[in-house]
Structures are given as structure tokens and as C-alpha cells.
Amino acid sequence: MKKKIILSLLFGIIVSVAALYFAFRNVPFGDLLAYLSSINYWWIFPSAVTAILSFTLRTYRWQIILRSTRSLSFWPAFHPLMIGFMLNCILPGRVGEVARPVILHKNENIPFSVGLATVAVERVFDLILLIALLACVLTFVPIDPNLNMTFGGHHLNRDTLMAISSGIVQFSLVLIAGIILVSIRKTRQLICQLILKLPTLLFFLSPATINTIQQKLGMPIVRQIDNFASGFALIKHPKLIGLCVLISTAIWVLAALSYYIMALGCPGINLSFLEIFAMMIIICFFIALPSAPGFWGLWEAGGIFALAIFGVTEEIAAGYTLANHAIQLFPVIIVGMASAMITSVNIWHVSYGEAEPPRQPVLHKSDI
Q: pLDDT, tens digit, for every residue of 78-106?
């Protein structure tokens, strides 16, 4: 496992360095340092507090999604969530999304597949909202068709943004279709029956061997599908879905407010809240691509491209984007590390789905 972690970190560092190089290669280093020194860093504190507040709303939303499986109080949900986002900031491959259900299994004895399904539901809410917001950005924010930036041999322009959003829309539709199929009892039963009948197609095997395959391979898969379905149970409650949509909207408004507050201390960033909101949405779609840990490089490329739409020079855009990126990430890393220490979670084990044996389950009122 240690070798896997070391290789993962090395890969992440290499990708980060390369991405940052392409994002800043046209920005004179001296000009970048001069701009960074001109920022009023007192704005860090309200910006960071606002960012962390958005994670408290994420926790509340996750509690609602988890309610169909286990009613968790705030802190048992907050700590895994922050550890997961912290791991996304320091390791490649978004391993934090897997770590969260691992921690839930360890601390609350909730099946891993159930926890993973709730994380997938969270991502669906975020994706749908971001797609809707991007549609508004593309409709109401004029993007010069001649605006073109080069990043690692790729051209960043309106067509690039449209291509990224189209890919994410397609992925979201496939994900939503899968959730619906698994959530409907009849289709789920049909899928499970097909899984159990597949071994019978191997006519050259003996009945005993086919039965062994069904019991050892087919039945565990069926149980995992049933667990996933329980994680998607929110789909049966329209009122809770509506509440999660409202919370998701508030989450992204708070995130944009954090960006805006930081911009108040950055010379040359004279943008309205809506323009900052549009910039954040564009950054989110850039970092939706396969990325380095903490999204270094792609975040900066998206920020520089978005700010260029509003006439911000590349030097100022690079300085603000780099500073704001750090402000968005480092508080999450600090809080996530604190959560790991409070809950005695080995972050290196959970990063790769290697959970320690679950604790003895605690009886809740709903279990009695």
C-alpha cells in the first residue's frame, strides 16, 4: 500500500507541476510575485469562513440523503465529508469520494456500497445544478468567439467550454438513468435475475460449478445492487429532493460569495457578484476533467480563461486565481486533517478503500 501511495503522490506532483507550467508560462514570474504582494490578505479570513460554511450545508444535505439508511447527527457526517474533500485536495483521482463511504462503514457500520451510492446522489445534485448554471452563463454572459488561450497544446475557447459541458451532460444522463433503473424495484429485480442466470449460459460447466458461481459471485453482486438501491432511496421522496435542490443552490451561492470576498482584496478584480459566479462555474467545469490533486493547473487555466472574458489581464487573472485557489483549498485541508485526528481515521488506508474493521455498531433510536 505504501508503494501505491508514493507512486500516486509522485504522479500527482508531476501532473500538478506540468499543469501549473502551462497555466502560467505566459505570465512573467516577477509580475506574478508583484501582484501577489499587492493583495490585501486580510480578506482571507472572511473568505475562508464563508467557504467552510458551504461545507456545513453540504453536511446537512448529506444527512438528508443518508436519512433513508441511518439518521446521523451533524458531526458523524461532517468529519467523513471533510476528510473526503481534504483527500481530493492532496491526492489525484478524487479518492476522497471513495474514502467517505469507507469511513462511514468503519465508524457507523453502514455498508460501503450504500455510502458510495449517497455520494453519487450528492454528485448528481451538484452536476445538475452546475449544468443549469452553465446554461445561464452561456446565455447571458457574452463570450468573444475570437477569445482563444493555449493550455498544454489545447485551445481554450467557447467551443472548448461547450465540449466540456456536453461531455458532463452525457455523463450525468447515464448516471441518472442508472440510478433510476436501480431504484425501481421491478427493474432492479430483473437486473438481479439476469445476473444470477448468466452462469447458466456456460453450458459446458457442471450444475455444481454453476451453482458455486451463482453463490460466490452472483449473490454478492446482487447484495451490492440492493445496498446501492437503499442509498438511492431519496428518489422516492420528492419533497426531500426539492429540499436538496434548495440546499445545493445555497451551497454554490456561498462558494461564489467566498470567491467574491477574496476578490475585494485583489487589485484589478472589479467584477460584480454575478460575474464572479460565472467565473466559478467555468472553473468548476474545467476541474471536472481528469486532474491533478487539488486541481492545480486546470483551476488556474479555467480562472484565467474566465477572467479574460471580462477583460481582466492575464497577469492579474493569474495572481487572483492562484491566491483564491489556495484560500479555497488550504482551509479544507486543515479542517479535514483535524477531522481525521478527532475520529482517529488513518487517511492513507481509507484513501484506497482499505478500511479498518468496523467499530461495534451503536444503537440508534431508529434501530430499536
A: 999 999 999 888 877 788 888 999 999 98
Maximum Cα interatomic distance, the chain, rounded to a whole number of Å: 76
Contact 170, 163 (CB under 8 A): no
* Residue 48 bridge partners (DSSP): none
SS3 content of the chain, % helix, strand, coil (to 5): 75, 0, 20
- C-alpha 290/C-alpha 221 separation (Å) is 28
pTM score, whole prediction = 0.82
Give the span between the Cα atoms of 160 and 149, in whole angstroms: 10
Whether 53 and 255 have beta carbons less than 8 Å apart is answered as no
Three-point CA angle 52, 53, 57, nearest 5°: 115
Rg (CA), the chain: 23
What is the Cα 61 distance to its own chain's centre?
A: 14
DSSP label at 356? P
pLDDT in tens, 238-297: 898 899 999 999 999 999 999 999 999 999 999 999 899 999 998 988 887 655 667 888
C-alpha grid cell for residue 291?
Answer: 486532474
Give residue 21's identity as a one-letter amino acid code: Y
